[in-house]
Write a structure and sequence with these properties.
Helix content is 14%, strand content 37%. By secondary structure, the chain is mainly beta.
Amino acid sequence: MNSNLKNYSLSLILLAEAIICFSGCAHSNNKTAKQNPKITIDTTNTIVMFKKWLLNVEQLKLLDSTAVKAGYRIWDVSKVPSVWDNQHWSDDPYFPVMNLKDTVGYLKIVDDSNVVFFSKEKKQKWQHHLQYAYRENIKTVLWQDTLYIAIYSPIATGSMLICVHASTGKNIWTGQVKCLDIAHSKYRNEVFIHKVDNRIVLAGDESRGILQVLDSRTGKNLFCVHDASTTLMNE
């Protein structure tokens, strides 16, 4: 009986020590967690890197290099292929419309004033008449049934941006795009387009550059920055 009591008492002592140790370890871990809180990064922010500018698209705010931290989505315009990288020019180009990495169709400029959409098999689906004629190059962003089309000339200033229904070509809006007032002798022009949530980014690599953000739902110009020595044609 005494032996059983002794073993029972020893078991209680060991159990008490285990509880104390567990409580102490848990307290220590909690204390460490409070001293070193988990760092969370807002991955919804997208940074556009273009020319000398770093733009937070959501905040419409220019940043310096110290503000760009790991975890941001970054669109580096310098890494996007340019029309000037292509050494084989075509007099009758078809511009691909991409859905992620797949080509779903092609656009073509006809008679300097119409954009025509073709299927992957090069069968015409619809035609959209442009308000302003004589543009030679196209960049697009496809989002569900909405197609954003930037139309510009590599040897003339500016760009136009239209938004249409991808299935029908019916116009949704024409963007409030701003253009630089630069002598023709300074030209060559390249335009890049990117969609960030409900905003469209237009980067114009002409002269010292122009960077714009438009509302993807309305085409309203939300932000524009350009070199201070350059004026805008529509301001």
